[in-house]
Amino acid sequence: MDNQYKYHFGKNSTALFHMDDNGLTLSVLSDNQNYQLEFKDEIFLNKHFYDNSAYTGEMFSVPIYGEKAVVTEEDQKLRITSKITPELTAFNLFTMSNNSATILLETYFESTEKIYDCSYFVARTKLNLDGLTQIGGANIPEFFPITTTPPYYGFNGHLILKGEKKFLKITGGNVSMAGDVVDAHTHTNFYNDDLTFYGKNTPLKTAYTFENTPLPPCFENKEEPKKLVPEHSIISGNFKIDYHIKKDGAVFVHNGKEYPMVSMLFKNIETGNTVFCDTASDWTAVTAEDHEFRFEHPYGIKELGLILSYEKKENQNRIEWTVEVKNDSKLYTLMWCSYPRMYFSSHEKCDLFRPCHGGAIFENVNHTDYIDFGAYPSGFQNPLPFYAVYSTESEKSGQYFAIHDPDGAFKEFYVASDSFGTIRFLCRFIAENYTQAGNGQILPGKAVWQQFDGDWYDATNIYKEYVQTCDWYPKAKENGRENIPEWMRDIPFWIMDWMPNESEDEEPIPISLRPNIENDNENAWFETPIKLREELGVPIGFHLYNWHAIPFNNDYPHFLPAKKALDKGLEKLKEADIKIMPYINALLWDNKDKRGEDYRFTKDALPGAVKNQLGIQHKLTYAAHEPDGELVQLSPMCPSAKVWRNELKTLISKMFHEYDFDAIYLDQIATRVPHLCMDKNHGHPPGGGSWWQKNYRELLDEINAIKPEGKAFTSESNAEVYANNLDGFLSWKWVSVRKHVPAFMQIYGGKIAVLGRSTNGYMKDNTTYWKYHLAQGLINGEQLGWINS
Fold it and tell me: Mind listing the domains of the chain with CATH numbers?
């Protein structure tokens, strides 16, 4: 196949679509300027749940555009139909506007059966950036050079690229860019729900505009289909939920449409075949009485069942849900199950609170095709387990969605909206013992839905009231938490720097740690901080990288011995009353842990490494190389493994006693998504649950027990479940969200030190950017800095 389709649109623009077996490209001539977009859309289908990775399934991908696509034309429209599987079809409809230089893309799906564990890239385009030099976005008054923008920095609603003569606006959901690739709907690659939510009447919309004008009418919504009338309701105060009981299922009814209450996945351990169930259909018996829904025998499998129980808190306009999966089967294992889904609609403009990093707002979410994903507990994704959506036009129209779980078990949250005003909130729990038959279980905690007055701040206080009952929430008196050293509570400013390389094995400084101006003075790493301390006249902390003889991201965890120059610098820094916090990694062990040779990994570490269902250890790579040029392969260690606990305790004890460091930074603990380790020899249940974070908290208790008085531990990012076991969270990644709100600080401010933002990376030349984050950190109560001295 090799075909071209040409259209005239706008006042003087031309679009040329070129489809061949390799995919789709779009060439546009607008205002005498050429643009080229190469579409990289594809569907990912998980076939072996979690078999070949720690927490993402083995997937095969199917390109949406290519040899199997069928193209049809109509007036100013190009429709491309792609058969993904015999059951699943993807449709992409391009509409060329007559009134402006805009091309609208509508993407939707149809399926003859229930589709699960799918994700996709829609409207992912590789651009020719010739003549496009600046980047900006919705509600951002300033444009920046494309080359300085951090990868995957998201813009709410639209992204603009421009140059001296060129202009391109891409409108979608959360639009992001990495290199020359733009995702108009970021996070769709994490989508894990029914693709047919995006049907013909509710497609995902993307617009490409080649002139600086508003979107044309073609971007407006189509007429909605006829609405259903609900039969039953749950009413708690002012909060009302509608539902239908069907012959073989039960559904929520929202905005006149039916939606499943809960979904789950079972697997036959003998054949490997999976059985996907949701509450909408295929149950032998369904009853609803006494605040309880009972579903029995999906697809006639008598040993399987589901119980949804709810409790009304009418004074709080709240409904709390409990989920129990019955599984007495000797053949089927439960892989995952969702909590009840919450739905919300409003014709008013509404903002979404997202718990990522310190808290963030996505504006006008209910009039945007938006998707958000976050694993909990993870500082980089969801350090907190709640979302909220609320009107910005009225005061009493907010809804709160959370999982109140005292164990802080691993969960995956999804939020998806369409431009017709509907938002759905979903959370699923990865089952414990998911390789074993008969693993029925009660999902941890409760799903909490609540109608509230206000905005993100009021929703945050709902969760704060609950989380203070959890055992990880730090206890504090009037002057703050007592088991944190006073200097750690009070220090106002942090620097971070890199000791000079000493060996030929060491590599260049990572860009996020690299100073703007290189200093050839071998003593600058300690002399410059001392000068800064004198100029500022306040105590400062020094987060010290590359202090160890081994290269960075290589030969872990053998951080001792230290570099030869460390002793001299430490003495000078201590004399200047600068607090020293060196880096170590508290997760990884190098598979070739001595200059490219397997020193201790296979002999000592491998039995304690995180493994998948096939018994293969997980491996991570960063920009570090072995002496032969191969990428360093580092394996996450299981926190339940005694070999790993003992290794860290021995290392930390030596560091404190030999070098008298003031604190030690434990990289990755509070940021990493819990791994689904499947090694039964480790003493934890294989698969999901709360065992990962419980074991890490036990490990932290053990190293706190050997910590000298006045010393401190910090970790990367801010997963809340470690708050009582650490003295500080490094919040460097909080620069990643555009509209930050201090939700995390509202809950944990004064309970744990939160320090630093990364302004050293791609934006290090932008003084405005640095001042903005410094000021925002000050207002939020964070410890400032984390910059090169």
Answer: 2-219 (2.70.98), 232-467 (2.70.98.60), 486-586+641-787 (3.20.20.80)
Does the pTM of the predicted model rise above 0.85?
Answer: yes
CA dist., res. 385 & res. 425, Å (int): 12
Q: How do residues 384-425 score in pLDDT, each as one tens digit?
A: 999 999 999 987 689 999 999 999 999 999 999 877 788 999
Largest alpha-carbon pair distance within the chain? 79
**In terms of Cα–Cα distance, which of 654, 601, 655, 648 is closest to 626?**
601
* Closest-CA residue to 721 (of 450, 419, 403, 433): 403
Closest by Cα among 230, 225, 243 to 279: 243
| Residue 206 β-bridge partners | 105
The burial of 705, by beta-carbon neighbours within 10 Å (0-12 exposed, 13-18 middle, 19 or more buried), is given as exposed
Q: Smallest Cα–Cα separation from 356: which of 668, 755, 762, 718?
A: 718
For residues 683 and 391, the answer to whether their CB atoms sit within 8 Å is: no
Chain centroid, CA 274 distance in Å: 27
d(CA 648, CA 157): 45
The identity of residue 472, as a single letter, is W
CA atoms of 228 and 248, how far apart (whole Å): 18
Give the three-class secondary structure for 763: coil
Residue type, 756: G
User: What residue spans of 131-214 are helical by DSSP H?
Assistant: none
pLDDT tens digits, one per residue of 456-501? 999 999 999 999 999 999 998 877 788 899 999 999 999 999 999 9
Each residue's pLDDT tens digit, 735-779: 888 789 999 999 999 999 999 999 887 677 788 888 999 999 999
